[in-house]
């Protein structure tokens, strides 16, 4: 009698191991179908990312094995009490595995979509930053253009300051100016030694 109980227990343990493997294979199958049908068609995700999430999926399956085995124990106990045939046992456990696999896959899909959404938001911020940089660059070009026109009309002439590595501006009265925050600010000419700048006029 004890030998029969031990054999039955060993069979149950073997069934558990097989069902756990089926669970992992089933969830991977659902995941792969999701990737192929949805993500690859829209070209949202890279192959490397898919492999990373496959690894993550297997890892999560292994973490949930205790909970899964506990669920299987409950199912086996209920089926034992009711003395249901092995075929129905397989069907019920396969249904349990399918439900758990689907929920796990949905959870991982949600995490993936959140990450993709964050990446898209970051791309938008980068695009905004590039746009602002382009606008600033265009504004800078306009300022240079205005200064060139001003120098040609002999309102301002500008000289390159060798010592301070800065562009200075000189008007018809030989007063020196610097450009700061789009405004001309007059500086004291005597505070700058003549040898520190040369009059390369444009």
Automatic annotation (TrEMBL):
Q: Does the keyword Membrane apply?
A: yes
Superkingdom is Eukaryota
Q: Is Transmembrane helix tagged as a keyword?
A: yes
Q: Where are the transmembrane segments?
A: 88-110, 116-137
Keywords (A to Z) from UniProt? Membrane, Transmembrane, Transmembrane helix
Name of the protein? Transmembrane protein, putative
Q: Which organism is it from?
A: Tetrahymena thermophila (strain SB210)
Where is the organism placed in the taxonomic lineage, from the top? Eukaryota, Sar, Alveolata, Ciliophora, Intramacronucleata
């Amino acid at each position: 009698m004890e030998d029969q109980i031990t054999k039955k227990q060993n069979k149950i343990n073997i069934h558990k191991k097989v069902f756990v493997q089926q669970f992992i294979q089933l969830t991977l199958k659902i995941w792969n179908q999701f990737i192929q049908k949805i993500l690859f068609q829209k070209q949202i995700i890279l192959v490397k990312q898919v492999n990373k999430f496959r690894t993550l999926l297997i890892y999560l399956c292994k973490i949930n094995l205790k909970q899964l085995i506990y669920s299987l124990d409950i199912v086996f106990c209920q089926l034992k009490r009711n003395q249901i045939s092995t075929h129905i046992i397989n069907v019920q456990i396969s249904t349990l595995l399918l439900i758990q696999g689907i929920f796990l896959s949905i959870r991982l899909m949600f995490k993936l979509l959140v990450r993709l959404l964050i990446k898209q938001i970051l791309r938008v911020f980068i695009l905004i930053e590039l746009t602002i940089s382009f606008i600033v660059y265009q504004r800078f070009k306009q300022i240079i253009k205005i200064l060139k026109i001003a120098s040609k009309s002999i309102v301002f002439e500008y000289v390159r300051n060798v010592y301070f590595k800065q562009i200075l501006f000189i008007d018809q009265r030989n007063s020196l100016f610097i450009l700061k925050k789009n405004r001309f600010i007059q500086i004291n000419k005597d505070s700058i030694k003549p040898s520190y700048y040369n009059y390369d006029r444009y």
